[in-house]
Amino acid sequence: MAEEKRAFPPQHQERHPGVQVEMKPKPIDEDPNYKASGKLDGKIAVITGGDSGIGRAVGYAFAKEGADIAFVYLNEHQDAEQTVNRIREIGSKAISVSGDIGDPVFCRSFTNKVINEFGKIDILVNNAAEQYYHENIEDIPVEEVEKTFRANIMSFFFMTQSALKYMKEGTAIINTGSAVAYVGYETLLDYSSTQGAVITFTRSLSQSLADRGIRVNAVAPGPVWIPLIPSSFPAEEVSKFGTEVPMKRAAQPWEIAPAYVFLAYNGDSSYIAGQTIHLNGGMVVNA
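RESULT FIELD:
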């Protein structure tokens, strides 16, 4: 019998939502062949969960396009420090703030810090999320469901409410969703439910803000090698992560980031609102 394909070394992190410095191998955050063209010169981008994974890769791509970056993270201080240092190496300004975006008071405080530092917000990326693995719905604690919803969708409300005060015509909001919003995931019931909410939130908010000239869209990745994976799944599940999609592999974060640049730049996506870009390794979701 042929040996089952392993995508990654089996590994698990007890710390949630995961730390990038402990992953083996490390995710690839940057495309060495990326050709920037100043699409976001002078822009200020706010990213939740910007310390690692997709958020980090988006921050690097935005910085290469000329944006300055403010990001929030939970408590992954080493990851955050690396991200800030790299953005500054690229040539952009960067600040990071640790805190819980499930708390509306913190979201307002963070937004105030961004305004004090940069004076405006041009791009809001609602990206942070967490997930917990359970084989049966009966095993999911009520407190965990509430925590997941607060982190994954209520935070989108709180950050958007805080940022909109400073966003003008021509600015953009980009929400990170997931392919599981369309296909489900049997061991991530509460997480999958929040991702369905993210897509509906995106569609509804885009209609709400159209008259103000603020575009709202989403990106729905399939499997991506980010810290959330080893902190969520059993080690053996991690070893097979991503092999179920037609391309038979998980994406690296850098492969997801250009979609955010596209949606952030009015010159490319000025007539796109309420839509979701699917980067999922060939999954057909019919949505």
